[in-house]
Design goal:
- This protein is an alpha+beta fold.
- The protein folds into two domains: 339 residues, no CATH class; 131 residues, Beta-Lactamase (2-Layer Sandwich), CATH 3.30.450.
- It has 18 helices and six strands.
- The strands form two sheets. It has a four-stranded antiparallel beta sheet, with helices on one face.
- α3 packs antiparallel against α8 and α5 packs across α8.
- The longest helix has 29 residues.
- The chain starts with a helix and ends in a 19-residue tail after the last helix.
């Protein structure tokens, strides 16, 4: 294995990453370079730039050009073009979402198109080794395209989904690149993986808690897609069993987190890819774990699975059942240390609670869609707030408070008196710390929850989901109103309390 190309690529990328991210921070501080407005599910509501992925893309592009024209024996121009074109296209898609909210459907279609471009350029899964046997399975062209696109879109979104805490996605990506540098056997896969090791070290200098810059969707898409492409290319003799299995171990944390999120949303009737604050890292932060301790713990967890990934590749999958057994045991032991994980094992109760929420959640989603559409139709926020109060009463809330700047409105939606143990949630309007919305509901006893005549919100968990959905609908409606009128979110009147909305 030639060491110089790897060291050269890593060193050049480290320098480019450090310099470019430093320049991005300077531009963000002294120019009009801005992020798109943060969303309700983001834990960071500050103006910290989300353009850290640009530093990684610059480093990747520089190494691609250097090895394209530099005449190194480990690379060929065709291989560089085959990899660089779709990877940079995926970065552009994510970077566009950092600047403007593109929408989930648009981004998914874009990911499929870029993954298809990679397939037609020659990055494809055409043969798959038969596990625990001999030989390989040759895939028909349409099946090869489908498997390749699914793999690339999955890895792209896995990295993006765990990018919720300073240093988390960057650190896990760094470990994956170390593994891929080894899997590449000294070829150009190793070169590009080594270059990303250097670039990620430069990025983590600015991103480790407390972060000065975030990876952003551009960086997360770039890293996830590049990981998927390098994993396919690093497969030996056209088969992709050991080469795909090894990175899957390193991706154990995001795969586990994503699987639980999709299962939870599916049972509750929520959109499967709707962002929320119920990922593992959100739960740990809510439990009082610091961002630094959370990231270090995730690194330890991933490092253990990195070792399992190496073991799976060294033995070419021969001892895979043993490795998987060790992995499952480690996950169970780790989950046992988390207080909130106990509900994962109470399958019957979790399933029953989730199914009982479905009707309320589906109703809330429909009401919120109407509220969002009203955001572009209302002439002022006074009228939009009256619509919000009407929906709040329909969803079962007892009180509503909306503050926009120095103006505030309150609604008593039912005749229920305030209680000491009432459930209450207050959400700030992303990008507007002085604007907030608060909903309150009367806490119900277990006897009331089980009563068929109970007309309020069933339980505290349902209240949290409904309040989050309602706040999300209000935020999107206000954003639409802002875009329509190009005005700051303010009421036209003073601090007046509005009467309860009339019953339908």
């Amino acid at each position: 294995m030639e060491i110089f190309p790897l060291v050269f690529a890593g060193g050049v990328s480290l320098a480019i990453s450090l310099v470019s991210i430093w320049l991005i921070l300077r531009l963000a501080g002294y120019s009009t370079l801005k992020n798109r407005n943060p969303e309700l599910h983001h834990t960071h509501q500050t103006t910290t730039p989300r353009f850290g992925g640009a530093g990684l893309a610059f480093a990747f592009a520089a190494v691609s050009i250097a090895f394209w024209f530099g005449g190194f024996s480990v690379t060929q121009p065709l291989e560089c073009r085959r990899l660089a074109i779709p990877v940079l296209a995926m970065f552009a898609l994510g970077f566009g979402d950092d600047l403007w909210h593109l929408g989930a459907r648009f981004k998914l279609i874009g990911q499929i198109l870029v993954a298809s471009l990679a397939f037609f350029l020659g990055i494809s899964i055409s043969d798959v080794s038969v596990p625990f046997g001999s030989g390989s399975l040759h895939l028909a062209p349409w099946a090869a395209w489908l498997v390749t696109v699914l793999w690339l879109v999955a890895t792209t979104n896995l990295i993006n989904l765990i990018d919720g805490v300073d240093g988390l996605a960057g650190g896990i990506s760094l470990m994956l690149m170390v593994l891929l540098a080894y899997l590449g056997g000294g070829g150009y896969v190793s070169v590009f993986a080594a270059s990303m090791v250097g670039a990620l070290l430069g990025f983590l200098w600015f991103n480790f808690p407390p972060a000065r810059i975030y990876l952003g969707d551009g960086g997360a898409y770039f890293m996830g897609f590049l990981i998927g492409c390098l994993t396919i290319i690093s497969s030996r003799k056209g088969t992709v069993f050991a080469a795909l299995i090894a990175p899957l171990f390193v991706l154990a944390l995001p795969i586990l987190d994503t699987s639980l999120a999709i299962l939870r949303r599916g049972l509750q009737g929520l959109p499967l890819f709707r962002p929320d604050r119920l990922h593992l890292h959100h739960r740990l932060l809510n439990a009082g774990v610091s961002r630094r301790d959370l990231v270090i713990g995730a690194y330890v967890f991933t490092a253990f699975f990195l070792f399992l990934g190496f073991a799976a590749f060294w033995h070419q999958g021969e001892h895979l059942p043993l490795v998987i057994g060790v992995a499952i045991l480690f996950i169970l032991l780790a989950a046992g240390k988390l207080s909130f994980s106990r509900e994962w094992f109470a399958v019957g109760r979790v399933l029953g609670n989730s199914l009982s929420m479905r009707a309320d959640i589906q109703y809330a989603l429909a009401q919120n869609q109407w509220l969002i559409l009203e955001g572009a139709r209302c002439s002022d926020l006074d009228g939009l707030s009256e619509d919000a109060a009407f929906i709040a009463r329909k969803l079962g809330f007892d009180r509503l408070r909306i503050r926009l700047g120095d103006q505030e409105k309150k609604w008593q939606l039912t005749g229920e008196p305030a209680g000491e143990n009432d459930w209450s949630v207050c959400q700030h309007l992303p990008g507007h710390a002085e604007c907030e919305i608060e909903v309150t509901a009367r806490a119900t006893t277990e006897a009331e929850q089980d009563s068929p005549d109970h007309s309020g919100i069933a339980n505290k968990k349902t209240f949290k989901i409904l309040s989050e959905l309602f706040a999300e609908g209000w935020v999107k409606a206000v954003v639409r109103w802002e875009r329509q009128h190009a005005l700051p979110p303010r009421f036209s009147g003073g601090k007046n309390a509005s009467p309860p909305p009339a019953k339908a």
